[in-house]
UniProtKB/TrEMBL annotation, chain A:
GO terms for molecular function: phosphatase activity. Pfam families: Response_reg, SpoIIE. GO terms for biological process: phosphorelay signal transduction system. Residues 2-118 form the Response regulatory domain. CDD domains: HATPase_RsbW-like. InterPro entries: Bact_Sigma-Reg, CheY-like_superfamily, HATPase_C_sf, PPM-type-like_dom_sf, PPM-type_phosphatase-like_dom, Sig_transdc_resp-reg_receiver. Keywords: Hydrolase, Phosphoprotein. This is Fused response regulator/phosphatase. The modification 4-aspartylphosphate is found at D51. SMART domains: PP2C_SIG, REC. It comes from the Bacteria.
Automatic annotation (TrEMBL), chain B:
Signal peptide: none annotated. SUPFAM superfamilies: SpoIIaa-like. One of its GO terms (molecular function) is anti-sigma factor antagonist activity. CDD domains: STAS_anti-anti-sigma_factors. It comes from the Bacteria. This is Anti-sigma factor antagonist. The lineage of its organism: Bacteria, Pseudomonadati, Pseudomonadota, Betaproteobacteria, Neisseriales. It comes from Chitinimonas arctica. Belongs to the anti-sigma-factor antagonist family.
């Protein structure tokens, strides 16, 4: 230890100083109070031994100054005093001194005091070190959180949530949310929405949900279906997260054109559908385990479909909302949610729910992340399809195609490949077609589905007619596809330059029996089926069937870019 | 939360009480290790009789216990789940991978 000894008597400095040095400590000397304060500042001793009475500045006052000027650093001060100064001594101890020694100094006691102080000094130093370490940890954690929050926001890409039919809200329990809401439209304008809830909260929870965003956005953009995206997300979560970590997830696909909802719910509280008058029309309870628990091939993909005909609100929320507790320990619960949002326009429903929660909590902090998404299921909300690019005369195609893309699929490939997203992956690389993805997706989907469903599988569109039609149709389709033994579909795309515009020619042919395409010449608008083909015809500059109807060619002209 | 281990012949019972959430991490792990280390135990019962709340971190801990119990060759069941606990287990569809009694 470094010990400062302040005394105006040289004999005392010599006597006590020698003794202190003999105990193995480093000694610094001062002759009065002012010098004691100065040397203290310069040398930063571990303890101070100081006479009560000194010229210029006495011991108690010097001690007070040392304490003030050393700030957070604790320097124990021991005053050396005669017994009669007892009341001054008490005052001194009150303003800064830590202990005292009676004159004449007993060396046995002095040694014991120095040892006791040394113990305290060491303890004090340890506490300081730990406090510094903690402060360091804290700063580092804050910085990591800041970076993580930025990364999260970039990866989650909030502006993509700006869908006219979607209203959503997230309130993290800590600075980072383990809840995630993501929404995007497929090229066919189907709204994909997911609400994910990673285990726990804060950074680790946020990290849990991160692997979901990339497959969700990338695959939705290319037109993959809900189930295919789920499989990929599950694979990613399994790959990235350790055992005991998982992500509860609800995935919704809303096709406004077909007025259908498809839902997969793994571990999220019931999704609820409230009609315009506030009635509860349908509930989708959790049917599946959250993502990341089962092995990759054990994931159940079964979804539930619903046809909507009137305007309604589809409400999704994380358990953080329903379980938010007020001071009295009550949970917010579904009744309060329904009261706030049922029967309201979607935007209003969201605002009212957020307000209702704030009122309910009355300043109490939420213990879990809260997220809420409301989809405005408006039957009229079908985004208008783009006007046909050029319904007029089809210009002569002169010369070779600039590029050609051909794919020929046998039975095995037809069962396993996601053909249209696969081709869209290629189309997305062709610059002149950048603005036409939605049109091309629709044309490819309709022509491919036509070739497979009607050409090879021999399905009749009449199946779709009744209320559960789509369900029956899809079941029958899956059955026949599984049983398919032979067949082939050829697809060829070619891009031509036409005076600054691009002409895309799509040919699809199948090995099926074909169909009577003569009615297409005069389409019957009341006919429930064939709408898809009529739509393709409207989008394209030309659409022609050949032979017995198992070969088709569509010519699509991109819009003039202004 | 407290976790008490009771071993009765081949059955090891993990009596939990209070709020089962992340703060229970250490106690729960210690109790699990104790019960799994007992060679006599063939079946582990996690008893929720005294649990009034569990969150997703608790579900994660149960998954870890399931993994460890399987590795130790011991059966595992969740018992005496009351309403709120049952509800959380139901939403997570844990009935598909756990025996719940």
């Amino acid at each position: 230890m470094k010990v400062l000894l302040a005394d105006d008597a040289e004999v005392v400095r010599l006597l006590i100083g020698r003794f202190v040095e003999s105990l193995g400590h480093e000694l610094i000397l001062a002759c009065d109070g002012i010098e004691a304060v100065e040397r203290c500042m310069a040398e930063k001793p571990d303890m101070v031994l100081m006479d009560m009475l000194m010229p210029r500045l006495d011991g108690p006052e010097a001690g007070r100054q040392i304490k003030t000027r050393m700030g957070a650093r604790w320097v124990p001060i021991v005053l050396i005093t005669a017994v009669e100064e007892v009341s001054k001594l008490a005052d001194a101890m009150e303003i800064g001194a830590d202990d005292y020694l009676l004159k004449p100094v007993n060396f046995r006691i002095l040694e014991a005091k120095i040892k006791a102080i040394q113990r305290t000094v060491e303890l004090n130093r340890k506490v300081h070190e730990q406090a510094n370490k903690l402060a360091g940890y804290y700063d580092r954690a804050e910085e990591e959180k800041r970076v993580a929050r930025h990364l999260m926001e970039q990866l989650v890409n909030r502006e993509r949530l700006s869908d006219p039919q979607l209203h959503s809200w997230i309130a993290p329990a800590e600075s980072l949310s383990g809840d995630l809401i993501a929404a995007a439209r497929t090229p066919g304008q189907v709204l994909h929405l997911m609400l994910a809830d990673g285990i726990g909260h804060g950074l680790t929870a946020a990290l849990n949900v991160l692997p979901l965003t990339q497959p969700f956005y990338a695959m939705t953009e290319r037109g993959f279906a809900l189930a295919d995206i789920l499989v990929e997300m599950h694979r990613k979560v399994r790959q990235v997260l350790p055992v005991g970590r998982f992500v509860a997830l609800a995935f919704v696909a809303v096709d406004f054109a077909k007025r259908s909802i498809e839902v997969w719910n793994g571990g999220i509280p019931e999704l609820r559908l409230y009609d315009g008058r506030g009635g509860l029309q349908k509930r989708w309870a959790s049917r599946h385990l959250p993502l990341g628990i089962l092995s990759a091939d054990a994931l159940e993909l079964e979804t539930e479909r619903f046809q909507f005909s009137q305007r309604a609100n589809l409400v999704l929320c994380s358990d953080g909302l329903l379980e938010a507790r007020n001071e009295a320990g009550e949970a917010f619960g579904t009744a309060r949610l329904a009261l706030a949002c049922a029967g309201q326009p979607a935007a209003e429903a969201l605002t009212r729910t957020v307000e209702a929660l704030a009122d309910f909590l009355a300043g109490t902090h939420c213990h879990d992340d809260v997220s809420l998404a409301i989809v405005d299921l408006d039957p009229d909300a079908t985004l208008p399809l783009p006007e046909p690019a050029n319904p007029g005369e089809l210009p002569e195609i002169a010369g070779e195609a600039r590029w050609r893309y051909a794919i020929s699929l046998g039975v095995v490939e037809l069962k396993s490949l996601h053909t249209v997203p696969l081709i869209m992956g290629f189309i997305s690389q062709i610059k002149p077609l950048a603005h036409a993805h939605a049109d091309i997706f629709l044309i490819l989907t309709e022509l491919f589905v036509n070739a497979l469903d009607h050409g090879l599988l021999g399905l009749s569109s009449d199946l779709k007619c009744d209320a559960d039609g789509m369900e029956h149709y899809l079941q029958e389709r899956a059955k026949r596809l599984a049983a398919l033994r032979e067949g082939r579909i050829d697809i060829e795309l070619a891009g031509h330059d036409l005076g600054g515009r691009t002409m895309l020619r799509v040919r699809v042919s199948d090995s099926g029996a074909g169909f009577d395409w003569s009615w297409l010449e005069a389409p019957d608008t009341h006919r429930p089926s064939g709408r898809g083909i009529a739509l393709v015809a409207a989008l394209c500059a030309s659409l022609r069937f050949f032979g017995n109807g198992n070969a088709v060619e569509a010519c699509y002209l991109t819009r003039q870019i202004p | 939360m407290t976790a008490i281990v009771e071993i009765d012949g081949q059955t090891g019972r993990l009596l939990l009480s209070g709020q089962f959430d992340f703060s229970a991490h250490r106690d729960f792990r210690q109790a699990c290790d104790e019960i799994l280390a007992s060679a006599a135990v063939r079946e582990v019962l996690v008893d929720f009789q005294q649990v009034d709340y569990l969150d997703s971190s608790a579900l994660g801990m149960l998954l870890l216990l399931k993994e460890k119990a399987a590795a130790a060759g011991k059966a595992l069941a969740l018992v005496n789940c009351r309403d709120t606990v049952r509800q959380v287990l139901e939403i997570a569809c844990f009935g598909k991978i756990f025996t719940i009694r």
